[in-house]
Amino acid sequence: MADRPALVILTGAGISAESGVPTFRGGGGLWEGHRIEDVATPGAFARDPERVLRFYDARRRQLAGVEPNAAHRALARLEAAWDGPFLLITQNVDHLHEQAGSRKLLHMHGELLRARCSRCGWSDRWTGDLAGVACPACGRLPALRPDVVWFEEIPIGLDRIEAALEACGLFAAIGTSGQVWPAAGFVELARRAGAHTIELNLEPSEGSDRFAERRLGPASRIVPAWVEELLVAG
Ligand code: BJW
């Protein structure tokens, strides 16, 4: 494949739903039974660190044994075959894209399988529980937190993301509700750059009408089909 447009893909919780990782919003979602401000803000962690850490410990345990699905694998295949600039931005804190083989990947909302010390800044891969554990570097407790981006915190890699969107010719958003900013605004940046924009989702997202094209259905079906189309068109 030659002369491909620069491709930027944004993924959200919907791409991992069929791997058994719950989404955030809607029936059975992660926020059901939790007020966001009790578990996913710096204020929540300052008020009640044990509660926040228990919420994330349970989610980290849920990740053990989950496997990438056909949609994750199709995106890894696309990256390997794409002869042009490529960036996969995920809002997901799971590790399913890298497990499927994606490498040009940016976790804009952090990673659940990493821990960070809120006091001394130490950070590393972390697969166990965090509740009741002192920081291995500075020894303070409570101090360790999951290395994820909560509301009111600045997402990771925004400069790189903005540069990629400004240069992109094709932008796809997969399995995201379009309710969380700044990710919800990426389609607008891509449109301004003149990119073709496409949404792939089970149902139309909040900002669905901002996309030039949309495909509806489960990610494990519609993402591999879209990838095959792109590869055949090459
Ligand atoms: C399927 C499927 C299948 C299902 N196949 N599809 C007003 C205006 C603008 C901004 C704000 C505002 N008020 C407040 C803000 C800022 C705030 C914000 O957006 N708030 C909103 C609630 C309004 N944002 C922030 O605070 C962010 N930081 C920030 O703005 O900093 C300031 C700044 C930024 C930039 C420049 C200058 C200053 C930080 C946001 C951090 C979000 N963190 C979380 C938690 C991460 C840790 C954790 O995992 O617990 O990230 S919140 C949560 O939502 C998580 C997700 O990544 C994120 C997005 O969710 P996602 O992926 O879209 O999931 P769902 O569940 O919403 O949707 C699932 C979708 O899948 C649905 O569409 C389904 O249809 C679909 N689906 N099954 C395909 N099988």
Task: Describe the protein's topology.
Blueprint lengths: L6 E5 L2 H4 L18 H4 L2 H6 L1 H15 L6 H12 L4 E5 L5 H5 L4 E3 L2 E8 L5 E3 L18 E5 L9 H9 L3 E5 L11 H7 L3 E6 L11 E4 L2 H15 L1
Parallel strand pairs: 1-2, 1-7, 2-3, 7-8, 8-9
Antiparallel strand pairs: 4-5, 4-6
The structure holds ligand BJW.
What does this structure look like?
The chain is α/β, with parallel strands linked by helices and 234 residues long. It has helices spanning 14-17, 36-39, 42-47, 49-63, 70-81, 96-100, 158-166, 186-192, 219-233; strands at residues 7-11, 86-90, 105-107, 110-117, 123-125, 144-148, 170-174, 196-201, 213-216. The protein has nine helices and nine strands. β7, α8 (186-192) and β8 (196-201) form a beta-alpha-beta unit. α5 (70-81) packs parallel to α9. The chain is globular and about 55 Å long. The model has no long low-confidence stretch (mean pLDDT 96). The site of ligand BJW has 35 residues, from α1.
